[in-house]
Automatic annotation (TrEMBL):
The keyword Heme does not apply. Keywords: DNA-binding, Transcription, Transcription regulation. Residues 72-256 form the IclR-ED domain. The keyword DNA-binding applies. PANTHER family: HELIX-TURN-HELIX TRANSCRIPTIONAL REGULATOR, ICLR FAMILY (PTHR30136), TRANSCRIPTIONAL REGULATOR (PTHR30136:SF34). This is Helix-turn-helix domain-containing protein. It comes from the Bacteria. Residues 11-71 form the HTH iclR-type domain.
Amino acid sequence: MPRERTGPDFIEALARGLDVIAAFTPNRPAMSLSDVASATGLARPTARRILLTLQELGYVRAEAGGFALTPRVLDLGVAYVRSQGLWDVARPHMERLSERTNESCSVAQLDGSDIVYVARVAVPKIVALAVQIGTRFPALQTSLGKVLLAALCPEEVDAVLAEPTRSGLTPRWQPDRAEREAALREVRARGWALTDEQLALGIRSVAAPLRDGTGRVVAALNVNTHAAETSLEHLVEHHLPLLLHTAGEISADFARLATAPHVTRTA
């Protein structure tokens, strides 16, 4: 389907290939050719050629009655994370935070009205929602998302939240505009965010911003707990100070990385 408002350098074939990859979601991990054509608005012959090309490149595999993505798709997201230096900077700090809290911790960034997880250190616990690199959730109902949204001006928040979520999850908390604005004002005032079973039953977490050398919020870091195991008091009194300290260390390291001279070695 031709797109509107594309420049002369726009590569339609590339855009269609990315549309096909994005059509696979947790609710439809495998799709037939007809499903892919319908989801992307592409003609069946076009969808077939794209799927076969992606299959030859290793991003898609054929299975009974259709197609599914392969783990190689993760390389696309990992390339982004590595290019930002977030994982290399955050990993040792996150590992120490996880050890001291005995909880999982994650870094996420904003993508439309969703958060996307870009780094994670997990502990083996049974939780209501599975999280891995690339997982996305509606931003407003997560502590990570509240931190990221609070860093935006009100007009930007409106524009971001006007975009439909691509997470496939319907959160428990559905605030009106006034309640949403009050929640984000509170986050801005105290510098961290809390969520208590607003995304899903049993999920409780706190999050803090990660900043670059200019003070701009580039990501958010959280500690995630199970509501049946960790009270709000323990989360705020014990985990939060450790989280804030860790977020400060990561931000400082990230700022130093951005200003460090880059040395090019030649053979």
